[in-house]
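Consortium newsletter contribution from the modelling node. Members have asked for a concrete example of what our holo predictions look like. Here is one, prepared for the FE2/S2 (inorganic) cluster complex that several groups have been discussing at recent meetings.
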Amino acid sequence: TDTHLVIFTPSGKRGRVASGTPVLQAARQLGVDLDSVCGGRGICSKCQVSPGVGSFPKHGVTVAADALSPFNKVEARYDEKRGLAPGRRLGCQAQIQGDVVIDVPPESQVHRQVVRKRAEARDIVLDPATRMLFVEVAEPDMHRPEGDFERLAAALAAQWQIEQVSVGLPVLARLQATLRAGKWQVTVALQRRTDGWKVVEIWPGYHETRICGLAVDIGSTTIAAHLCDLSTGEVLASQGLMNPQIRFGEDLMSRVSYAQLNPGGAGEMTHAVREALDKLIGALAEEAGVAREDIFEGVFVGNPVMHHLFLGIDPVELGWAPFALATSGPQRVPASELGLHMHPEARAAILPCIAGHVGADAAAVALSEAPEAQEELTLIIDVGTNAEIFLGNRDKVLACSSPTGPAFEGAQVSSGQRAAPGAIERVRIDPETRRAKVRVIGCELWSDEPGFAEAVGAGGVTGICGSGIIEALAEMRLAGVMDKRGIIGSAEVLGDVVFAEGRTWSYRLHVSGERVIAVTQNDVQQILFAKAALYAGARLLMDQLGVDHVERVVLAGAFGAHISPLHAMVLGMIPDCPLEKVSSAGNAAGTGARIALLNLSERRRIAEVVRKVEKVETAVEPRFQEHFVDAMRVPHENAPYPNLAA
Ligand code: FES
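And here is the predicted structure:
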């Protein structure tokens, strides 16, 4: 028989196939990723392709108008009922009759790349643990004794090369009725388990539904969750809420003490977080317009204390050296065991912890930012109440966590507040007059521009957020309002931009009506403690690696996303580094959780990566204290900042 040249784009894969070969089959032969849920029956439309016509000098072919067979009955019926976009063909129906160039659009690829936002470092390739397939099962026969499930398993092996299939009782109980209702055609949801595949849901005939998954970052203050469509990677809904454990203690250590001091205290906190998560799942499902039962998988990350409490493990051992984790390995348990109402067979995967202070949230940051794949020596800092810090490159990666406290989130700062409309986020101080102008979240104007008050609105300027306070302090240092020790100058030197409060001076940042937003001496102290802890953690890793500078800095976390690299460096939060090499990664922990949800091999790989990360324990390292004391200066007692001088 005749053969024809077929070239697939964008992969560029090419080869010769026999005349009359359907495009889907040609794709399979040449190893081209072309989706199909119905197995070529013209039902699912996942196999859509865009054939080219005319000359393709780049590929050295000219494609005739009749290079593909005309619409057959199945394709015509599909087009009539559901409509095919112009130029699109069903790959399972169109047959190759001449040399042809065929484009596989992104939505027709199984392992398509999920489009990521600008700040994200790596692409996500879809390969989730749960998938849906349409299958035709042989009817029973008096002469063959196998059961309906065995015939379903055989059909999955023959039509989809899926081996080692198991089934649980709930699906088994409905299997016979469903097979007959679907006239021996069914759609199944299959979930990859360590020992093969499990049929977790079954529907009669060809069934279209969203199969969803959750990516959740359980922070000590807030819980943030995304609901994703597992077959497209699309985020269907995102929501956050306060972690209700706050009523047992603001920070991690106070929650650990609550567990130590109160019998049943750990259980109360476990209950609180699970209950909040279950509510959040309901809210996400509602926002996305899906049922809880459509959610088949969840990936959860959190620091070690959150990790333990979520799993129902008492975190007392994390309260003292040597900070032993109950387990550092990845976990995958039935979601129902965690009190989460999703699909009855849904699984909850919890990423591995790195060390007693470096949790699954840090593992998620590593998954998103891939320190182990960097050429340049990269410092990654996820700023929160604890800062998780990585330093490394291809050769080696070190990690630690540093107790920065909640000052960067606006707590312990007199006018501090969370990043929300009305909060000061940008500050500039005139070095001559030493007066400040500010910009607030939700408003484009500076405070000295006409129309500022109207633009800010009735709420007015309400306080200062974490990134705002960093800028304020750095600008105060640059304008000489505050000295190297962080002491705010007196009115004799500075005039009326400062006012006395007890025995110290406060700097007036913004006045609106009655409200004065100022930086007090105590505010400066709190921020210096936090920044010194951050710097000392980074420095400790540098010592351990035997380096005196880093080539790149990545700031992760909501706070890191808004911080100005220049001001962070003026303040000495981060070690010296060329300014253009300081970037922000946004919510890297959330991104990492999403990668783990959408790609099972990535989830498995990160367990390997974190095993190889070298952990450094800041709490027991005397040099941490030394670095901390030196870093209480602005920018630092003795560390050089050549990039600032330039
Ligand atoms: Fe389902 Fe072509 S593979 S329509």
